[in-house]
Amino acid sequence: MKIAVIGLGYVGLPLAIEFGKKYRVVGFDINKKRVEELRAGYDHTLEADLKSMSLAITRFAENHETGLSFSSDIQDLKQCNIYIVTVPTPIDKFNTPDLAPLLKASEMLGKVLSKGDIVIYESTTYPGCTEDDCVPAIEQSSGLKFNVDFFAGYSPERINPGDKINTLTTIKKVTSGSTPEIAEFIDNLYSSIITAGTHKASSIKVAEASKIIENSQRDINISFVNELALIFDRIGIDTNEVLEAAGTKWNFLKYRPGLVGGHCISVDPYYLAKKAETLGYIPQVILSGRHVNNSIAPFIADKVVKLMISKDHKIKNSNVLLLGVTFKENCPDIRNTKVVDIYHALKEFDINIDIYDPWVDAAELQSEYGVSTVKSIDETKGYTAVILAVAHDEFKNFDFEKYHNQNAVIFDVKAIIDRRWVDGRL
Q1: Which are the contacts of 373, defined by CB distance < 8 A and separation ≥ 6?
Q2: How many Å apart are CA 333 and CA 330, to the nearest integer?
């Protein structure tokens, strides 16, 4: 077996490294800069086990039978017979699923496939996408016939960026295939690297659906506690204190309010909703949850401004420090971060905002969102508000007491600051 992993991001790179320990693997990405970075032994996502990656690269250099190499040249894919697609599945500005990366990857693979090859998709999408959208793109590009000349499978990714405990091999993997024989083959393939085991789904559609409801369920649960936060703010009680009290019952689910961003939870429900709408059903709960979660960033900004007014601070041209801008703690991932929404909502009040985040790639943030960061915190600026947006470890020992004593508003999005110094939190 010779495996090609298409897309070397948070999902594809760890997968390529793990398979590279046992098989011949080509890690492919259209981003030449990314390929050069990996060849040099560096990974800006910080998800890769660099030691394992180096060993896999060395193994290939020594025998060319197993190990890992990286490429952005489509010609290098022709030697492979198993293709695993891990490209992004984003949404556009109207929250409509954008299948362009997935379809372009499928069309590209159609140009290199040979008879008997297998294409396995890991990108999160709606049930039916693999067989109804991706496979036809391959057929049109290749001239090959599905389940006669080539085969397909789906094994949803379960990568959790920044998590060094629940990693690729320690999370049970769902697998599926376009025929019973291919399903068994794919299941055995993943079983060879996943120590936690696999679950073979009865069909590709079932596997696709299993992934998309994982994140949709979490999105809905978080939207419930976020709505509670909006209600309890009007009542004048602390949401987290209410949740701590309710959590004393054994079967209460301990979700916390907060920003819902990233590449999965804030995106996947739109894929499921779009599929439902094409079938004539308008989902109520799913889209309602999305609406609530999207309202949290502007709520935080408005709340901070009200707290500033209550402390007699001037709003226009005031200085605010925003701690953290990645979508979650202790990782550099800025995909669909909702912290940027707080930034833009505050800018509408003509507030000067300094974003400080030791994890973020400043150039990437500027390119993606048009937002800049500061390299260090300017102690002379006299911040009138400090917002903890992301719970990076670096912020756990931050001197919030000092700013509290200077009459600054302290707003704690993550509910981790000593309650004595906090003016507001979700």
Answers
A1: 325, 354, 355, 356, 357, 360, 362, 365
A2: 9
Pairing of strands 173-175, 150-154: unpaired
Residues annotated as part of the active site? 264
User: To which H or E segment does residue 23 belong?
Assistant: none
Contact indicator for 354, 322 with CB cutoff of 8 Å: yes
pLDDT band at 215 (very low <50, low <70, confident <90, very high): very high
Instruction: Note the pLDDT tens digit of each residue in 176-214.
Output: 999 999 999 999 999 999 999 999 999 999 999 999 999
Residue 383 tokens, joined: 């911040």
Only one residue has tokens 């046992």, namely 22
Domains detected in the chain = 2-210 (3.40.50.720), 239-425 (3.40.50.720)
Q: How far apart are CA 33 and CA 25, in angstroms?
A: 19
Nearest to 295 by CA among 349, 334, 341, 256: 341
If you search the block for the tokens 């085991």, which residue do you land on? 197
Q: In a 10 Å sphere around its CB, with 0-12 CB exposed, 13-18 middle and 19+ buried, how is residue 298 labelled? A: middle
The closest alpha carbon to 220, from 315, 293, 169, 160, belongs to 293
User: Within a 10 A sphere around the Cβ of 279, how many other Cβ atoms?
Assistant: 7
Q: Say yes or no to pLDDT of 317 above 90.
A: yes
- Collapsing DSSP to helix, strand or coil, 16 comes out as helix
Taking the CB of residue 385, how many other CB atoms lie within 10 A of it? 26
Q: Are 119 and 178 in contact (CB under 8 A)?
A: no
Q: What are phi and psi of 121, to 5 degrees?
A: -100, 140
Residue 62: phi and psi, rounded to 5, are -85, -35
Q: How confident is the model at residue 65 (pLDDT cuts 50, 70, 90)?
A: confident
Q: Residue 293: how many CB atoms within 10 A of its CB? A: 24
For tokens 């398979």, the residue is: 19
Cβ atoms of residues 211 and 174 within 8 Å:
yes
Strand arrangement, sheet containing 117-121:
67-71, 24-28, 2-6, 82-85, 117-121, 150-154
Tokens of 306: 């009200």
Q: Decide: 20 and 70 in contact? Cβ < 8 Å.
A: no
